[in-house]
Structures are given as C-alpha cells and as structure tokens.
Amino acid sequence: MRDVCLIGIGQTPIGEKWDLSLRHLAFSALTAAAADAGIERPDALFVGNMLASRLNDQAQLGALIADFCGWRGIEAVTVEAACASGGAALQAAIRAVASGAADTAAVCGVEKMTDGSKVETAGALATAADAEYEGIHGVTFVALNALLMQRYMHEYHVPHEAFAPFSINAHHNAINNPNAMFQEELTLQTYLKAPVIAPPINLYDSSPICDGAAAVIVASIEVARDLPGTTPVHVLASASATDSLNLDDRHDLLSLNAARLSAQKAYQQAGLVPADMDLFEVHDAFSIMAALSLEAAGFADRGRAAYMAQDGEIGLNGRIPISTMGGLKARGHPVGATGVYEVVDLVTQLRGEAGANQVKGARLGMTQNIGGTGATVITHILGI
C-alpha cells in the first residue's frame, strides 16, 4: 500500500443556504480544494451524504456533482453511513489512492437539511436509528441521545451543568471561524436557562440543523512531491468499527464500543497512543457524545470527561484541545458533510493556518466521525 496524504482543502460557510442547491455547495467546496491542491481534475470522487434522497429528492450525487464540476467521466460514487458519511467517503478515497486504483481522489461531504420542515428533517435523521426496534416507537434522535445522557448522569453521579464546558468551549472557538454558523460566546448562565428539548438535553447540548459542504483532495505522496507549493498532511491511520444500531442491544450502553475499537485500530495503525495527539476533533453532535468519545478514545477515564472539560483540559491551550474551530455544536453539523469538515479543521491546524485558534506546535491530530448513536465510527489520524 502506498503512503497517502491530503494536499487540498475547501469548505463553504455553514448555515441556512436556501439559495444554494446541493450541487452548488459541493462545487464551491470541491473547486476550492482542487485549487488549493494545484490540480484540475481528480481521478475519482467520493461524496459523503446521508439525507439527499429523502430531503432533496436527489440520489446519484457522485455523477451529479462530478458533472457539475466539469469532471464528467471520472469514477464517482456516493457513500452513506448516517452522520459518519463524510468520514466513510474519506476512508474510501484513502483506500483508492493507497491501493493504486487512483493517484488523486476528491472527497466531498455535502448536506442540505433546512429546505424542508423540522418534522421532515427529524424523521429523516431518525433513519440512523433501528427502524424496527426504535423508530417504530416514534423515538427521535435527540431522545436517543437523551437516554444516553440520563444514564451517564445516573451512573456516574454527574450533574447536568457539568456538560456546559463542552458547548461553551465550542462557541468560544467558533468566534474566530468565519465558516461557523454560530460565531458568538455562550455563557454558563445562558446554558442553564436554555429550553429543554428532551430531558436532560437542552438547546445548547445540541448541534444545529444546517447546510454546508467541505472537501479534501487525497493524493499519493509521489504525486504530492511533484506539486509545487503544497503542504502535504500525511494520513497515518484510517480505521472504522461498528456496534448495534439500537441502544438496548448493546452490552455496555456507556462504553461507545465502536468509538473505542475504531480509536484502538487507528492508534495501532499509526504506532501512536492518545498522549501523542496534539488535538482531537470530536463528534460533538450532543454534549453527551463529546464526553463518551473522549472516554472511548482514551483521553479520559470513564465518567470523568465532563470534569476534564470543567478543568479546562479541552481548550485551545489545554491537554487535548477539541472542537478547535467550533465543532459540530457551533461550527454546525450538516450531517453527511461533518466528517469532512472535521478533517478540514484538523488540516488547517496542522498547517499552522488556524489563526487565533491555532493550537501551538500541532503536528499530530485525530478526528472521530460518528454515525447514529455510535453504530458506525470512523477515526482518522493525521500528521505533518
């Protein structure tokens, strides 16, 4: 297998993009990434998307977007793994380049979630759960995460306010990200007064419904060396794992087993340990998921992630900075695109291009992209 690196990144601002279609969002991100990489046409395109066929009446995104970008004729497919679709698309591209099937591959995560009603979007998101054992009872995705949070608080005697630092940190970092949806501070008082969506999850425990697209260009190290002006970021690990879709079928509800297995595989591939990471772009779709991910990935003992956050260890100058450009909570969570946005943020940090949010001396970092309530988890480790 060949060594693989990322040589170009691109993204659109996240928000309610009613005036832009899926193809326009993808085009903006992909052409920016291609220009950043210094290439005109990749050998292949992998599109991460979850909801287009349901919310936008559009399938065949691979061919649609390749054509719209002027790349008609290349290999192009859509990859779906619920909220982990972006990470899965990147993994497919990495494997294509590593195997020699392609010398360059473009990856685009794209999602439009705001064109329909909130009821339609909530119903579409619920398809990431088990339709026969969870969905049939009318459970929403927020409710499933609320069950996890309730159990965590009960099992470890953690008060709800202990989760506030995750959201406060994300909002603080988003202020300096022009592509973030919420570029504003969040105070503890505002967090505590937020309306409850599904007890104990409140408005500020949750990432927003939004639209956006992010893209990266994957290349072999040989191709990267021939492109002047590029700063290759090396792919040191790309690993995935699964668990049951339905929560009641899990052996340990709070272990987030797929995240643990995915992280362990990634550490083994890279020959690294958690202490080697300079930052971690966590999948903070809900604050409970940030806590469970930190514990599953080995950055905190079980039941301790919330207190770790309270102690400032997740800030830009902390032991393991997370959500460095706002994360899913404040940057936004256009579900099929999120895994690629995480990687774009990490590449920005490793290149030293994060401005006021730069993690000093960042040379190694990890992303974790979670599908559903942890049924599919994809972990990437990158280094400069």
Structure, explained:
This protein has 384 residues and is α/β, with parallel strands linked by helices. The chain folds into 2 domains: 139 residues, Thiolase/Chalcone synthase (Peroxisomal Thiolase, Chain A, domain 1, 3-Layer(aba) Sandwich), CATH 3.40.47.10; 228 residues, Peroxisomal Thiolase, Chain A, domain 1, CATH 3.40.47.10. Helices cover 36% and strands 18% of the residues. The chain contains 14 helices and 11 strands. A 9-stranded mixed β-sheet has the order 3-2-4-7-1-8-11-10-9, sandwiched between helices. A two-stranded antiparallel sheet has the order 5-6. Helix 1 crosses helix 3. It is globular.
Oligomeric state of the chains in view: single chain
Total number of domains: 2
Which strand order do you get reading across the main beta sheet? 3-2-4-7-1-8-11-10-9
Order of helices and strands: EHEHHEHEHHHHEEEHEHEHHHHEE
Q: Major sheet: size, sense and barrel closure?
A: 9 strands, mixed
Give a count of the beta strands, DSSP E runs of length 2 or more.
11
Measured between the Cα atoms of the first and last residue, the distance is: 19 Å
Annotated CATH topology of the largest domain: Peroxisomal Thiolase, Chain A, domain 1
| Structural category | alpha/beta
What is the overall silhouette? globular
Mean pLDDT: 97
Q: In CATH terms, what is the architecture of the largest domain?
A: 3-Layer(aba) Sandwich
Parts with pLDDT < 50 across at least 5 consecutive residues: none
Helix content: 25-40%
Highest CATH level, the class of the largest domain:
Alpha Beta
